[in-house]
C-alpha cells in the first residue's frame, strides 16, 4: 500500500526547509501572482526554482497554489506562468478557477489538484472534476469521515483531506463578507476574516444577544482521525498555514510525521502523546471540525480571535560541540537551568536542561532577546536544526 | 436579453410576464420563500409551456442527492431547467439521463471569459457571471465570441455568506437567553462598527447572510446587450417592489419614476476597486 502523503505549507524558503526536515512528504507554496494568502511572503520564480531543487534532492514534492479566482487583469498571465512552473520542475498546482484548470490541462503536464476553494463536497462533484482532467481533489472541509470514506470507496481520483489548521466558517469560496466590508477580495487572497468579527442580532428592532454574536471557526486538529484516514486510503493529508511560523510548521510536521509513521509500523501510542507533541504550536482553540459530526458549539470560536503568541518556543540549535555545548539562536525569553524539550527530526521527543548559559563568552542568567546567539551546556547531544521548547 | 424572475405561486406564474420562472422548493432549495413539492408540481402542471426553472442553490453532500433526484424526477419533464451551484449535479443528471437546461450559478466564480472554455464541453448551457466583478470586467467578458449562454444577476440583495454551520443554533447553546431562530426571515445581523443591517437566516441547510443594500444595474443596461439572461433576485424584497422592478425591466415603468420610488439602490461592485491588502 502506498504510504499516505503529508503535505505542509511553506511561506518562504526557510519554512520550506523546516517542513521537509521535520517530516513533510511534500510542500505547497504560493507564487508572487495568482495565489491566495496575499500577505504570506510568497515565492518568486527564482525562489520556486531553488525550492524545487531542494525538495527533489530529498525525493519530496512541491505544489504551487494558483488558487485565485482570476480577474481580467490577471488572466493573461496564467498560461506563461504555468508553463514556467512546469519548466522549473514544480510537481503540481492547486487550482480553483475553471479557466486556470483548463489552461493547465491544455498547455502543461502539471499535476492538477482542485483547491478546497471549490468546496467539493460529494462523490458526484469529485467525478465532475475528474471528467475534466483533475488529478486530485482537495475535499471540502465540511465533510465527515464517513462521507470521505464513501467518496474514497467509489472513485480512484486522488483525494486530499485537510487535517490541521485554520478553517473557513462558510463554505470556502462562497463568502464575500470581506469583499463587502473591507473591499478585500477573499477569492484573491485578501480575506479580512470578517466572520470572526463582532455582530449583534436584531429582530423587530430588538437586540437578541447579550455577548457579541460570532461565527468564527476554531482551528482544525485531527490527531485521533488520522488512523481512519490512512486506513480508508486517501492519498494526502494537508496542513493549513502558509503564514505560520517556523516553530508551528516544524512542530506540526514533526507530530503528524510521528503519528503516521507509528500507524504504519503498528506502534501507535495513546493520542495524548501526539497532542503533547503538538504542544503550544496550536495557539488558537481547536476542534475536529466536521470530521466526526456537524460542526456545532464546540467547533465555534466565541472568544476573541486574537491568538496569543507562543512564547514556549525558545530557539533553534545552530551547532553542538563534542562536550554538548549548544549554540542557539534565541526566539523567546528563558533562564538558565530551565528544563527543555527537544524536537529532533526523525527522533522521539527528548528532554534536556539549560545550564551554563552564556552570551559572547560571559555567563548570563537569561536569554532575553529574539535572534541573539547564546550557548549552554546540554545533558544530551543535540543536532543542528533541532528546536528547543520550554518543558511544561 | 431575457428575464428570469422568482415566483412563489401559480397565481404569479399567470400574472407576471417573464421568459423564465424560478421556483425554490423545500428540502432541496434554500430561500425565504420556498414552496412545497406539491405546490411546485401544481405550478408545473399548469405552466402552459412557460419555462420553469428549479433553483438548487446548495452544495449537496452524497446523502442529499437521492432526494434531489427524486424531486427532479417528479418534476421532469415539465421542468425546463435547473439553476445550480453544485457541479456534482451535472454528473448526477448525466448518470440518470436527465436532460434539462443547466445554468451554473456559483455566485462568486466565473470572473473571466476564459472560464466559459472550461464548461463549454459539458452539458451546462449557461453560466452566470460573478457578482464581484466591475463593469469594465463585465464589458471585457462579454466582448468575446460567445461559447455559451450567460446570465447576470441584475437586481436584488446579494448573498454574501453561505455556511453549513447552524450559527444561530450554536450561539443559543453558548448563550442560554438567545432565542431559537430557525426559518425566520425577519432577523438581521449588525456588525459592531457599522450601522447596517444584514438579512440573515438559518434553515435546515445552513446559515445565510445577505447584503443590506439592493443592487440594481438597470442604469447600465446597455452594457448587457450581449447577455442572454438577467435574473431578478427576490429574497428580502417586498412583493410590491419586486413587481415594480419586473415592470421596469419589461419596459412598463419609466426608470426616472422608479428611481424616485427606490432611491437607495446601488450598482454593487461596478466601480469599486477590490484589493487584497488592508486599506
Tell me, briefly, the overall form of chain A: globular
Q: Which structural class should the secondary elements of chain B be placed in? A: alpha/beta
Major β-sheet profile of chain B: 8 strands, parallel, barrel
Do you know the CATH topology of the largest domain in chain A? TIM Barrel
CATH class of chain B: Alpha Beta
In round numbers, the mean pLDDT of chain A is: 92
Mean pLDDT across residues of chain B: 94
Q: Approximately how much beta-strand content do the residues of chain A carry?
A: 15-25%
Biggest β-sheet strands, sense, barrel of chain A:
8 strands, parallel, barrel
User: How helical, in percent, are the residues of chain B?
Assistant: 25-40%
Question: Could you give the topology of this structure?
Answer:
The complex is a heterodimer of chains A (392) and B (279).
Chain A: E1 5-9, H1 13-21, E2 26-30, H2 45-57, E3 61-66, H3 72-88, E4 92-95, H4 98-107, E5 111-114, H5 123-131, E6 136-138, H6 145-154, E7 158-164, H7 177-182, E8 199-203, E9 206-207, E10 219-220, H8 226-232, E11 236-239, H9 246-264, H10 271-278, E12 286-287, E13 313-320, E14 325-330, E15 334-335, E16 339-343, E17 350-353, E18 355-359, E19 362-363, E20 366-367, E21 373-377, E22 387-390
Parallel strand pairs in A: 1-2, 1-11, 2-3, 3-4, 4-5, 5-6, 6-7, 7-11, 10-12
Antiparallel strand pairs in A: 8-9, 13-14, 13-22, 14-21, 15-20, 16-17, 16-22, 18-19, 18-21
Chain B: E1 2-6, H1 10-15, E2 20-23, H2 37-45, E3 51-56, H3 65-75, E4 81-84, H4 88-95, E5 101-104, H5 115-119, E6 124-128, H6 135-142, E7 149-163, H7 167-174, E8 187-191, E9 198-203, E10 206-216, E11 229-232, H8 239-249, H9 255-261
Parallel strand pairs in B: 1-2, 1-11, 2-3, 3-4, 4-5, 5-6, 6-7, 7-11
Antiparallel strand pairs in B: 7-10, 8-9, 9-10
